[in-house]
Amino acid sequence: MIIPSIDLMDGQTVQLIGGKEKSLDAGDPRPIAKRFARAGEVAVIDLDAALGKGHNRDLIKELLAIAPCRVGGGIRDLDTARMWLDAGAVKIILGTKAIPEILRELPKDRVMAALDSEDGDIVVEGWQTKTGETIEGRMGELRDLVGGFLVTFVEREGRLKGGDLERAEALVAVSGGVRITFAGGISELEEIAALDRLGADAQVGMALYTERLDLGAAIAAPLTSDRSDGLWPTVVVDELGIALGLAWSDADSLSEAVRSGRGVYHSRSRGLWIKGETSGASQELLRVDLDCDRDAIRFTVAQKDPGFCHLDTMTCWGDHGGVAALARRLARRAQDAPDGSYTRRLLDDPKLLRAKLAEEAAELAAAETPAEVVHEAADLLYFTLTAMARAGVPLADVAGELDRRALKITRRPGNAKET
Hints:
Elements: E1 2-9, E2 12-17, E3 21-27, H1 29-36, E4 42-46, H2 47-50, H3 57-64, E5 69-72, H4 78-87, E6 91-94, H5 100-103, E7 111-118, E8 121-124, E9 129-130, H6 135-142, E10 148-153, H7 165-173, E11 179-183, H8 189-198, E12 201-204, H9 206-209, H10 215-220, E13 232-237, E14 243-249, H11 251-260, E15 264-267, E16 271-274, E17 283-290, E18 297-303, H12 322-336, H13 342-348, H14 350-366, H15 370-391, H16 395-406
Parallel strand pairs: 1-4, 1-12, 4-5, 5-6, 6-7, 7-10, 10-11, 11-12, 13-18
Antiparallel strand pairs: 1-2, 2-3, 7-8, 8-9, 13-14, 15-16, 17-18
Helix pairs in contact: 7-8, 12-15, 14-15
């Protein structure tokens, strides 16, 4: 699959040729990260840090809240590695300091070793220093300590002359099953598809910025279909992963969906179908995922009311229930709860809401039997979700915060505060 790349220098998105000559300045990386996030993980490389000329840390921390990021560039000690993992990097990429002494102290599945090669020679320190080592040799040393390799063919980087698929296949064969992401010159859809068939990923920058590659088409490159019409079944889910319904996609609809950031599908009766264009029940496309067999798609969307179904329910199986349904209902009530209702009273009286939150938390803490815990937890969830609705905070934002916290590797003691 494709891994879009953002290289940072002086707070801007840039592309270098061979790691030296700046050939493109794409500006503010924030909107780029939002668009690239539709493809999944995004590689964010701090070139200033890699070259020892400063850093873009604060900016990268902003990007971590926008997209799931692999962070690399200038990570040369254990403290910096841990800092990025705690900050929410899905993975970190180590180059010069991808050494056993550091790697053994980090979670293997979230660490990649950068193997940057120029004409067969591993280069480090922002591609400025040759080591005399080979990619194969470094793989043999590190494959039991990392969850992935980033292999960059520096002589091809930024030149749009294609990747080295023959070399890539040979390296996959000796990787010991560790997944490889290849970078450097990749500029054709078939290269992305071929690497995916090998069990590898394609990190792409220049071809996306110059529009040599369309991002939607690049996401679709590995897809296959056994249908006579070539369509791909598309499972549509909300931000919490709840299935809303089933739709169909083709190359045109997928490209338009990724380009526009909307829920766009292929209708077998109407052709290109933009969800909600006439009904108002539109969707913001957040992410596209391919299934393991590369013959089906999942769209993660932010769905507007009244929902996905033409029967004006949130899902094609009716309205969902539980916490997600309560959160959505309270969010609506924040706008239209009638005067005199308890929810309106809580929304209008923050002192009462604070008191009820404290009261219900204490009752949950004192609950002993399963039935008591269920009852008190339900009460506390209601008041918690009311507080969120009052502040305009959707449940998906809280879920995202929990996901980010799960990425931390440095644990706080969690002791109770003194009262």
